[in-house]
Design a protein that fits this description.
single chain; about 375 residues; alpha+beta; Aldehyde Oxidoreductase, domain 4; 2 domains; four-stranded mixed β-sheet; about 40% helix
């Protein structure tokens, strides 16, 4: 996008603004964007927080005389939430809740906690829906001999898809208690526990499950691979500031701003952690992680020769959320897990190009690859001068 902008004599931000998707736009698969999209607002916020325009002008002045070159770049992007196309329909995921006679509620799902905070966010959704304390909600071990099949923990779907199923199941459980006369519309936790005990004593297990239902108006053609690829998208703008040593071609990311719209944020700290982790991984993708293959085998398959970012390689990451509730997500939440890895590589490489004035055409942008690109640029300029 930056190269196209330069050819047209436009600023990088301007060419993106002219091509941003917005409500009513049609994607590459023929999907109409039905939700409100404010990429302009995200871009404005990210550029302002990073001081983009001020730094770009300052770096342009200082780089001519500075032994270390600095640059700043950004990327605007989006990511679908949930399985692509008919994936969620095929899965027909089910999740449920079950209450005990003491009023404690157990979450029944095959969604797996792998450090992303699933157990906390799902418990929050159920607790808020049932209006009971968070510590009275427990997540059952996700063994499918005891819990329904909620589908795999992938595709930015756990909070949005499974969370919505649990929200619906919790609503159904409360409705069971209220319609049977054991619980009023307004209640305390002690009254909730009493109602659960009375129901279980009279009727047996108190349990409710919900099965996936696609949002209305979603259609996908599996044969043509066209239509509504996702129920919704999350949107973001990432800005990276880098320094480059022109002698060694080492790149250091100095500052990073990540602005995103992911619907309602269920747990701000966990959500920010998702973004920070994705950005850190994306920096590795951009600068360090080079998979070397030989004869179909990975040659550098150990931590000693496959370079991942350490704490010294990851800058301060400023995370910004702009919330716009998604009506078919739990409490308005959308997917978040994969979104943050999409932006760092293009943002960092745009910043490297801004610092060095050379085109970078591949990742990771290792010192060796940057040196080759610089030599190629010098050779091209030398030929141009000679001719």
């Amino acid at each position: 996008m930056n190269k196209i902008a330069a050819m047209l004599g436009l600023a990088p931000a301007e060419i993106r603004r002219r091509n941003f998707l917005r409500k009513g736009s049609i994607t590459a698969t023929g999907q109409e964007i039905r939700e409100n999209v404010d990429l302009n607002g995200l871009l404005d916020r990210a550029l302002a927080e990073s001081g983009y325009h001020m730094k770009q002008a300052r770096f342009l002045r200082e780089n001519a005389h500075s032994p270390v070159k600095r640059g700043i770049g950004f990327a605007a992007f989006f990511h679908g939430a949930g399985f692509t196309g008919s994936g969620e329909r095929y899965l027909q995921s089910i999740a449920g809740v079950e209450a005990t006679s003491t009023g404690q509620v157990c979450i029944l799902t095959s969604g797996v906690e792998i450090g992303q905070g699933t157990n906390t966010s799902l418990a929050q959704i159920v607790a808020e829906t049932l209006q009971i304390p968070l510590d009275q909600v427990d997540v059952v071990q996700p063994d499918t001999s005891n819990v329904p099949n909620s589908g795999p923990t992938v595709a930015s779907r756990t909070c949005m898809v499974i969370g919505k199923l649990l929200e619906r199941a919790a609503c159904d459980l409360r409705q069971i208690l209220q319609s049977s006369g054991f619980l009023s519309s307004r209640y305390s936790f002690s009254e909730f526990g009493t109602a659960c005990a009375a129901f279980i004593q009279q009727h047996g297990a108190l349990k409710a499950c919900a099965q996936y239902e696609a949002p209305p108006g979603i259609a996908w053609d599996d044969d043509k691979h066209s239509g509504d690829a996702y129920g919704t998208f999350s949107w973001a703008v990432h800005v990276a500031e880098v320094s480059v040593d022109p002698a060694t071609f080492e790149v250091q990311v100095e500052d990073f701003v990540a602005a995103q719209e992911v619907g309602r944020v269920i747990h701000p700290l966990l959500a920010a952690g998702q973004i920070e982790g994705g950005v850190a991984q994306g920096i590795g993708y951009a600068l360090h992680e080079n998979v070397v293959l030989s004869g179909g085998r990975m040659e550098n398959c150990q931590m000693t020769n496959y370079c991942v970012p350490t704490s010294l390689d990851v800058p301060r990451i400023r995370v910004i959320f702009i919330e716009d509730a998604y009506p078919y997500g739990p409490m308005g939440a959308k997917g978040i897990g994969e979104l943050p890895i999409d932006g760092p590589a293009p943002a960092v490489l745009n910043a490297v190009e801004d610092a060095m004035g050379l085109g970078v055409t591949s990742i990771p942008a290792t010192p060796e690859s940057l040196m080759v690109a610089m030599e190629a640029m010098y050779a091209k300029n030398t030929r141009a001068i000679a001719s």
